[in-house]
Every structure is written in C-alpha cells, then in structure tokens.
Design goal:
Bound molecules: zinc ion
Shape: globular
Order of helices and strands: EEEEEEHHEHEHEEHEHHEHEHHE
Strand order of the largest sheet: 9-8-7-10-11-14-13
Largest sheet: 7 strands, mixed
Radius of gyration: 19 Å
C-alpha cells in the first residue's frame, strides 16, 4: 500500500491522508449494460482515518446519473428472486413493534417493499423513471429521485432501508446522514452491502470481484459504520455477515471459486489466457473488455447487514 497523490481526499471524512491499495481492473459493463468502450477501473483507495475504501477517480455525477437512467431492464430480473438480504431484513422486521412507515432509498421497482408485506406504509426514492413508475403501480409513494434531495417526511419514517445502495454512492456519509434526517428518533436504518473486512476481500485487494463492478464506488465495513454512526446521531445496533450466493450452492462450486481467485491472484495474465481458451464463464466475443476481469466470489461471506438506531436525543 502506498500514500496517494496529494489531490485525493476521502469522500466520507475529507481526510487528505489516503492510501492506494492498488489498481482496479478495467470493465465494459455498467449496471447490466454493455458499453461500446472499455472503462478504466481506476484505483482502490483507503482512508486510515474513517476506514472507507473508495474508487478514484470517479466519473462525474451527471455521467453516472445518465448511465443509471438508461439502465438495462434485463438487469432487473435480479430483483425478482428471493434474495438473502431481503429475507434477513424481513425476519428482523418481524421481531419489532412500532414500525409503520418504511422508506426504501433506491427502491427500484418496489419489489423489496412488496416483499416485506402490506403491514407497512411504503415510501421510496428512485432515480430511474421507469422503475419509479413501476414502484408507484405497486403502491409505493415515491418521495424523491435520490438521497441528495431527500425531503423530510412528515411524519418521519420509522425505518429507512438502503439495500445494496451505499456502494453506488460517491458520498456514503451523505447518504447515511440524509437517511438519519428522515427517520424519527428511536427509529431504524438498515443497510446491506459488501464488507471490505471480509477475509476474501483482504486477500484479493483491489482485484476483488465486488469492487470491479463498475457502478460500485464506495466500500464500507463495520469499522466505518462504528466511526460514522455517532457523527450523524446514530448507534450501531447489530451487524450480520452473510453470503450473497444461493444457499444451495455445492461444495464443488465453492472450491472452484477459491481456485479461480487464487489463480487470478497469482497471475491475472494466466487467468485471462484461460478465459480466452473458453474457461471462466465469460463470452469474450461479446464482452471483449472483460478479459482481465477477476472471477466472482459469490460464495464468500463478504456481505453484511447493518442496523443503526437513531438516538432519541438527536
Ligand atoms: Zn475518511
């Protein structure tokens, strides 16, 4: 790890003391779309002060928003299956009383809110117009396009959720602060995302599959959550680590993922050669910019669910 050039500052705490962990491999995908150019991955940076990891440089907010607005509907099928994190949130919610108004930030087409059930009033924030329209058709009240113009709900929400959202935000502390502002004192915030402190991520560093995904720009961990929580009037109540893979995956699948990642770690060029030979599960004729992309590690326990509670006196 080396010190970053002077012009890089932490997007969460503004510290100028930032380290570079390494180069992120290039990609030609963004939010399920194949782009007609290869995008550089940039560098994976780490802030020793607040523990955030982040991609640098970032594309402009306008470019990112344009790419999200033209998101591929094919990618939406991901939301259709029963996801581990959805299941975890619903089970946790079932243990609580006093939750009526739920705001889902990045609610997409409203399927998560529908999944948690009709015992709650549904509110959503969504930037993609088509997805927001579909959410409305499901009964979700759309109250904003993104968290930067998140209105203060009256009355405030009992629970705000961001399911696989914070890794897309260039200002993760801004997202958490906005969510804290629209939750009642004593209410909850639930975030699910990748965990940079997972052993598999520590092993692969800047070539970890999760930070290679081009639309992922901010990467948090339990240490970051504990650092930021008191600064925005929150308390970390609960952290649960989990894997995003289907629980039914076989031992063989898990071993193959380990072997592929170790091979890539030893020699990305050798791995790219194997990909060109037809191994690795990517059609390189269709995705020519993905030859050097690292293998997934879906079976790794590299995700987490964090429950924050808003302090009663904030
Ligand atoms: Zn920082």
């Amino acid at each position: 790890m080396r010190e970053a050039p002077d012009n890089i500052i932490c997007p969460s705490c503004s510290s100028p003391r930032v380290q570079v962990k390494g180069e992120i491999p290039p990609s030609c995908l963004f939010a399920g779309r194949t782009l007609n150019y290869v995008q550089k991955g940039g560098r994976l940076c780490r802030c020793p002060k607040c523990h955030l990891l982040f991609r640098h440089p970032l594309r402009s907010t306008n470019t990112l928003n344009d790419l999200y607005r033209s998101e591929n509907e094919e990618n939406w099928s991901e939301a259709a299956r029963q996801r581990t994190d959805w299941c975890l949130v619903r089970n946790w919610l079932g243990l609580l009383d006093g939750i009526g108004r739920v705001l889902d930030v990045g609610c997409f087409d409203g399927r998560f809110l529908e999944y948690i059930g009709h015992d709650y009033q549904w509110f959503g924030v969504e930037i993609n117009d088509k997805a927001a329209w579909k959410a409305r058709m499901r009964g979700v009240q759309i109250v904003g396009r993104d968290f930067t113009n998140l209105p203060t709900l009256k009355p405030l929400a009992d629970l705000a959720t961001a399911i696989d959202i914070i890794e897309h935000c260039s200002s993760p502390s801004g997202l958490l602060g906005s969510m804290a502002a629209c939750v009642r004192p004593g209410g909850y915030i639930v975030i699910t995302t990748g965990n940079t402190e997972a052993p598999t991520w520590r092993f692969m560093g800047s070539t970890y599959w999760y930070c290679h995904i081009a639309e992922h720009v901010s990467f948090i961990n339990p240490s970051w959550a504990r650092h930021i929580a008191p600064l925005v009037g929150l308390d970390v109540q609960y952290i649960h680590l989990f894997s995003h893979a289907d629980p039914q995956v076989t031992i063989l699948y898990k071993y193959l993922e380990v072997i592929k990642n170790i091979t890539y770690k030893i020699s990305p060029a050798l791995f790219a050669l194997l990909r060109r030979g037809g191994m690795g599960g990517i059609d390189l004729k269709r995705f020519q910019g993905l030859a050097l992309s690292p293998p997934n590690w879906m079976s790794a326990k590299d995700h987490m669910l964090i429950v924050f509670r808003k302090l009663s006196n904030s």
